[in-house]
Amino acid sequence: MSFVAAHGVTKSYTVAGRVLTVLRDLDLSVAQGEMVAVVGASGVGKSTLLHVLGGLDTIDSGQVRVGEHDITSMSDEARVEFRNRHIGFVFQAYHLIDELTVYENIETPLLYQDVKSSERKAMVADMLDRFQIVGKKDLFPSQLSGGQQQLVGIARALIVNPKLILADEPTGNLNSKQGEEIMELFSKLNKEGVTIVQVTHSEKNATYGSRVINLLDGSVQ
After folding, report:
1. pLDDT in tens, the chain (221 residues)
2. Residue 138 domain flag
3. Which range of residues forms the domain containing residue 76?
4. Which of the four, 26, 139, 165, 183, has the lowest number of CB atoms within 10 Å?
């Protein structure tokens, strides 16, 4: 049974008065516990697909389901709450908050969930330890290397124990050794039961996981 499913999804943008259709009647199915790579040329809609699957973008038509939940029919508020509780996002550009320390960045998703202070401290401490960044907890993103920033981003994504991780070019700004470490980490998480959908240009990254999904002209090939 599909854990993540898109049926007949169409998504378009209006750019300079012209309608640009990025996803076109797209169907996609990912089983629970799968790790898949979405590949394709630049501009075919890979990032848009990820944003749609995670409820960051609404769609023109079709349906997107995550688990038992139809996120297409949710209100904006309900979709945000669902996303914060169940989905972990990892971005190429890290998307850390510059004004917050490593500790505060990792803690942020828990603040949306009203987790008690004592629990938050324990959960953040666990993540800092797991990723061996305890010594970096009081530093700001600008004081970290790219690899360290990405580790913080992944720690932040994982702190809510998501069932689904959506990763958009997660190693794009890293050197080959850092990239390999991140992909090994994803592989380990996947073995622990986390479903992972990653968008990548890297042929090597695409070999991690069980399946490669090719996107062309806004549709799965």
Report:
1. 789 999 999 999 998 889 989 999 999 999 999 999 999 988 889 999 999 999 999 999 999 999 999 999 999 999 988 988 899 998 877 789 999 999 999 999 898 888 899 999 999 999 999 888 999 999 999 999 888 898 899 899 989 889 899 999 888 877 888 888 889 989 999 999 999 999 998 889 999 988 999 998 888 97
2. yes
3. 32-60+68-220
4. 139
Q: How far is Cα 200 from Cα 168, in angstroms, rounded to an integer?
A: 7
Q: What is the CATH number of the domain that holds 161?
A: 3.40.50.300
How many structural domains is the chain composed of? 1
CB 28 within 8 A of CB 63: no
6 located within any domain: no
CA dihedral 5, 8, 14, 18 (to 10 degrees): 150
In-domain check, residue 9: no
Nearest to 146 by CA among 93, 90, 204, 203: 93
